[in-house]
Amino acid sequence: MRLSPWLVLPLCWLTACSVTPPAPPAEPPLHQLRPVEVDALLGRLQQEQPLLRERVSQLARRFIGQPYELYLLGEFPFELHDPQPLFNLERSDCVVFVEHVYAMALSRDWAEFFWMLQRIRYRDGVIGVTTRNHYTEADWLPSNRWLLADLTEQLLPGAALPYSLQVDRERFFRDRYRLQVSLPVQRWNDHYLPHARTAEVLGQLQAGDFVAVVTGKGEGRWVSHVGLVVVGADGERRLLHSAAPQVREERFADFIASRKDKGLQGFKFLRLNEQAEPPPMAPQPRPQPLPRLPK
Predict the structure, then answer these.
(1) Of 110, 128, 96, nearest in space to 225 by CA
(2) Which among 287, 289, 286, 284 is positioned nearest to 119, based on CA atoms?
(3) Beta-carbon count within 10 A of 132 CB
(4) Domain CATH number, residue 103
(5) pLDDT category, 16, cuts 50, 70, 90?
(6) pLDDT tier at 293 (50, 70, 90 boundaries)?
(7) pLDDT reported for residue 21
(8) Closest listed residue to residue 100, CA positions, set 72, 124, 123, 79
(9) 202-212: average pLDDT
(10) Collapsed DSSP state (helix, strand, coil) of residue 167
(11) How many CB atoms lie within 10 A of CB 137?
């Protein structure tokens, strides 16, 4: 039997009303955005999310899937000693990932983000290969005390183990960049929590806290990797970090299991300052030629 036209319309209307509307399109990952889109995102996020920790978590998770590449950034076009660019959103290594997330979370637009990124990456914000925070323990963390405070010895009193690091910057610049820079050797003393005690302190960590992974060989110890703490829907603390092949979020227990046979010794944990206010940048001096060693 054919339906008359006056019956067809109501049936179509009822059918349309019962259809579930399509889900809104997922937001693209951050590493696929253009700078103008990042600019708009940062302004919107500052309005929508007043809590720094939540901004850090949201931004970090939007980097999931970003391809990993080691030694990603340099000073080009400001300097030529390291030809890598000052900025690259398409890929990251572990430090670049953390710097980008913190700088974005602290900024309201693109201009402030780019300024904040250099303030975090360089000693006093002065751009240059010799002022870049190359050593995590002895450069990056001390330069960013305004942003992070070391909790390692407080989380589980008496459990942290000491270690020392010899920082030979003169040799580093000579071997890596063929630059002749006169700098004294520094002995850096630090502490880390053995990985076997990690489960005892995870409940004290908060979203946005900084994780430094301590690796060792023989008596030597050093920070070889970094990441951020995020909190799952069930309250579980997880590690979000950039490592080959891409940025990912994983349980601390799984990360430890994958690294125990690769020299993993433990972790340093640092608390994110929720009222972080960066000190002013030092004046950018007029560039002076650095003595180069013969090739």
Answers:
(1) 96
(2) 284
(3) 20
(4) 2.30.260.10
(5) very low
(6) confident
(7) 53
(8) 72
(9) 98
(10) strand
(11) 20
